[in-house]
Amino acid sequence: MTAFTTAAMELLIGKDSHALLENRAGAVQTVGGTGAVWIGAEFLKRWYKPNDSAPATVYISVPQIGNLGCIFHAAGFTDICTYHYWDPVSLTVDTEGLLEELQNAPDGAIVSLHEPAEMGLTPKEWKKVAAVMTEKHLFPFFDIETQGLASGNLDRDAWVLRHFVDNNFELLCAQSFSKIFGLYDEHVGNLIVVTKDNETLIRIHSQMAEQIGMVWFCPSGLGGRVIAIVLRNPALLYEWKQSLKALVKRIMLIREKLKEKLRILGTPGSWEHITTQSGVNSFIGLLPSQVDFLAKRKHIYLLPNGQINICSINSRNLNYVAQSIHEAVLSTTIEDHSQSTWNTDLDYLAKNSIDQVPTRIIFK
Question: Which cellular component terms (GO) are annotated to the entry (predicted)?
Answer without folding.
Answer: cytosol
